[in-house]
Amino acid sequence: MDNKVILKSLCVFGIAFFMVFSLMLSFIPQADAGFASVTITDVRQTELHPGDTKEVTVTVKNNGGRDAKDIRLAFQGTDKISVIGPTVAQLNTLNSWHSKDVVITVYVKEEAQNGIYSLPVACSWRDLYLDPAKGHVITNKTKEQLGISFNVIGAEVLNIGDITTDPSDIKPGDENVELTVDIENSGEAAAKDVEAKLLSNEDFKPSWSGTDRSYIGRLNSGDSKEATFHVDVSDEIESNTYSIPLRIRYKDTSGKEYETMRSVEILVEPKPEFEIVSHYTVPETLNAGDNAVKLHVKVKNVGSENAESVSVRITDEADVPFDYDVKSDYVGNLKVGDAREAVLEFDVKKKAEPKEYPQGIEIRCTGDRDLGDDTVYVFDEQILLAVSSGSSSSGFSVPGFGVLFALIALVFAFVMRRKGL
After folding, report:
1. Where are the beta strands (DSSP E) in 289-369?
2. How far apart, in whole angstroms, are the C-alpha atoms of residue 123 and residue 90?
3. How far is CA 236 from CA 141, 304, 370, in A?
4. pLDDT tens per residue across span 157-171
5. pTM of the predicted model, to two decimals?
6. What is the Cα–Cα distance from 60 to 36, expressed in whole angstroms?
7. Which domains does the chain have, with CATH numbers?
8. If you ran DSSP here, which 8-state letter would residue 317 be given?
């Protein structure tokens, strides 16, 4: 091979080497093109509450002039905030000036106080570049300590504390019962414009307008204030423990409105209750001037507790033409469901007008002492007593005497007719 051929071959080889070398330079950044710089530029969902478990999106960006390879982010927890599940995120490539999102799950412990909490992130990556001085590709590994921060804001948690009543022993039929309820903020944030409303029903009704509402105002974390309500208890309610719904409305410090439901537990204790099941007089028909009229009144314990020392008494009424010689009668003890008769006695005034008269009856008893109830109960009932249009000339009447007299007269007339008289 002559020298010209050798020279031509060398020229071709040199041109080819130059082209390959130029192509390599187009793919590998030069040393003076800068370096890769991985950082965290954004965190979405930075506001958390104690006890939260939330997905958080972390934006990772390469702010450098070289591409980054094998990016590794290790999220390191603290005693109050930590990552649940995978704690390491791996990215194969992050081109220069480009970014990618990484999703992690963050847990905040219940006892975390309000404040800013940082989560350390150990970051490492490699970048490749051609060093002209050395004439080959250099691998550069970099480690950085990064971090992300979260604002932990405690939520408002409103609960019911102590409940007191006046009277302390609630009975069926009680009116204007005062309920005092402690509203507590056991959360980590303040609540404002707190208002409580007792959701009354047929068993518990507001004593008067507005007594089922109580405005409390602001409750800081750990504070407690009293809410006061007044209710009337139904006469027909049975002795039992009742749960009255309580609606609490409030706002957080930013003005967002919330509503929570709680309940007030109320014990209604047993109580004797009476009704008049029947009454009649002897004589059955009352006339002006009748004397020594017997009034029979039958009372029954329809309550939920045995009654002791039951007595029935006439109450004084205006414009009632009756003078009572026996105004009260002792009935004794009556168990629930038992009935017994009281007998009273009165005279009808001679000038009594023929019409119906309302007569008040008072039933008095004590509670069941075996249950520790020594309360004196008084029940007011009413009956109607009618004075007929007839009169009693003698001032004395015998029940059924008129009918008997008419019967005797008929028999006498029949006998006399048979005798031909």
Report:
1. 293-301, 307-314, 322-326, 328-334, 339-348, 356-366
2. 10
3. 84, 10, 23
4. 899 999 999 999 999
5. 0.56
6. 13
7. 22-152 (2.60.40.10), 158-268 (2.60.40.10), 274-401 (2.60.40.10)
8. -
